[in-house]
Design brief:
The protein has helices at 17-26, 29-32, 71-88, 101-112, 124-139, 178-189, 191-199, 206-220, 265-285, and strands at residues 8-11, 38-41, 52-55, 93-96, 119-121, 146-147, 150-152, 158-160, 166-167, 170-171, 225-234, 240-251, 254-258. By secondary structure, it is α/β, with parallel strands linked by helices. It has two domains: 8-121, Rossmann fold (3-Layer(aba) Sandwich); 124-285, L-2-Hydroxyisocaproate Dehydrogenase, Chain A, domain 2 (Alpha-Beta Complex), CATH 3.90.110. The protein has a three-stranded parallel sheet with strand order 3-4-5, sandwiched between helices. Strand 4 (93-96), helix 4 (101-112) and strand 5 form a beta-alpha-beta unit. It is globular. The two termini are 36 Å apart.
Length: 287
Amino acid sequence: MEKGYADVVLTDVVDGLPQGKALDILQSAHVLKFSSQLTGTNDYAETADSDVVIITAGLARKPGMTRDELVLANMKVITEVTRNVIKYSPDAVIIMVTNPSDAMTQLALKVSQLSRNRVFGLSGVLDGARFGSFIAAELKVSVTDVSTCVMGQHGNDMLVIPRLSTVNGISLTELLPPDKIEELVERTIKGGAEIVELLKTGSAFYAPAASALQMAEAVIFDQKRVLNCATYLEGEYNINDTVIGVPVKLGRNGIEQIIELEMTEEEKAALTRAATTVQGLIKVMKL
């Protein structure tokens, strides 16, 4: 809404919640000078003909809870939401935020019966943002000069690749010692859990929202951005029938290209482990 380039519909099952949020946001329009239309509703009919749908519905993690433990609880929610999305917006591109995002993306893909280019999830954009923030703080450089590469599962089996993460083109491996890099990598992997532990009764939303927005912008404006997203693979990286985070080119129709990087044997093994973890969740959901 603050960007002012799209009309937005907020939908939730809780009566009054989306309406109240929408009213609060709309009352900032005069100050922030945006004129987009905003609707809060409990009726999916008001979302009809959406170009982009961002799904955040579901239970948030509690302290000590892993993303994996969320899978069965959020499976029912995502199934219902996806069916309603497709009922009213059959031509939409779906961006999945709900955790565990890799598994929920694959669930939405199956339920929607859309082509894989139109259903993808929040993954490396958020994880890379966390890693980039930590790098900038450690080196005391501008975050605008930092580029990161984070692939694999959005969770404990994410693959952070320091050699492909750079500061103005200079590899991180040339700027920091291995022990410091490992420390930043570990903090990145536990980035969401760290926030959950601090908040006690909530989870991260500022950085996930900004990351989902970046993905949506790439679609809305046909930007051809290369971003790491949770993507259904059909043989790429020697992985089949599994959603994991890999670099893709995003444009108006969603994923326009899956980019396969040259990887070391260690990195290949780590990516395979990530796929195996997601496959375990898929089996739990019996997809």
